[in-house]
Amino acid sequence: MELNETEIKERIGDGRIRAITLDTCIFEGNGNRFERGLLTKLSQFNDTNVRFVLSDVVAGEVMSHVIKEAQDSMSAVRTALKEVGRCWQTTNGQRDAALQALFNTESPRDLAQRRFDAFTVATQLEMIDSGGRVDVTKLLNDYFSVNPPFGISANKKNEFPDAIALHALDSWADEDNLLLLAVSKDGDWKKYCKHSEHIAIVDDLALALSYFHQNAEVACARLEQRLHDGTLALDSELDSAVQYAVERINFIPEVSSGYFFHAELGDAEVTAIELQHDAYEGRAFRVVDKPEEDVLVVEAEIAVTINVTADLTFSITDSIDKDEVYIGSASPTTEQVLSFKVLLTFEGDLAADAEVVEAEINAPKSSMYVDFGDVGPDWEPDEPDES
Fold this sequence. Notes:
The structure is a single chain. It is built from 11 helices and 14 strands. By secondary structure, it is an alpha/beta fold. Strands 7, 8, 9, 10, 11, 12 and 14 form a 7-stranded antiparallel sheet that branches. A 5-stranded parallel sheet has the order 3-2-1-4-5. A two-stranded parallel ribbon has the order 6-13. It is globular and about 85 Å long.
């Protein structure tokens, strides 16, 4: 069903929306981090009348992604240890001991299952079984009639997992006589939910969580007031969170030049952090969680200015022996402004002097191309004649 923000809040307030579910893309967007960040805030529904549910199809997709991440990271460590062995002349036994210390005997699949099981317990997650809830005749009719979530593309067969998940969730919500709030950025999920009688949808997890915590708005307004009058300090916690996020970005230099060059990343220096005071309809904060009377978690948006430097060496080809001859170097710097969303946890008297105790930016490893434009060598002066 198509609901606006006010209508969603009304249905939460009167108890019609009593469950929340996530699509696979929301887990991916939060780095599949079950232990920290927004995903952990789903535990706020524990022991309440709001239920956190997940389709078994989505759970399977999330598990497969976590397994692959674990496999990739283990493979990277094995490759790195081989290089260590070559350079440091370590023995196979030493490398095996290092692998044992890091991974013990746990396989990527066992690791993923352990982490997901812990997440299930921590959030009191209810799994929605597709078996018996999916009408195959209706599913096939939607497929051949190109009804959402099936599209008109040649790859619409790939949309069967989404279709099974959504049909099962729809049927479950009907069985329990409630409305379900789904969180997904997927266009096919949005099209399906638009015509569902039992599922409403939003595309932002922090926003969805905030809908369930209207009673924390007064506390959030107090933080806003202190922010504007200068009695709320965020700098120290923000500095460390931003530094961590920036360190996880692989800046890749892009350079144009009339000379052959070799480029490496130099420094990436944070020069400014600016809180966006109107990020949420004129406000700087949005409530995410209020787990205890004296604890409030809000989301904020910050603009981070970074000076990125590239270290370039230039050469030309000697016309006689065809060797590459070094002719100079350059270290251009360019300014980049990045946007991050940060979770701020406040503790203390929320009506008076609560302080931020943690700032966390969800920062999965990523790469970013940085354009330095057209660059040439800084010509080095000739060596002085000592004769």
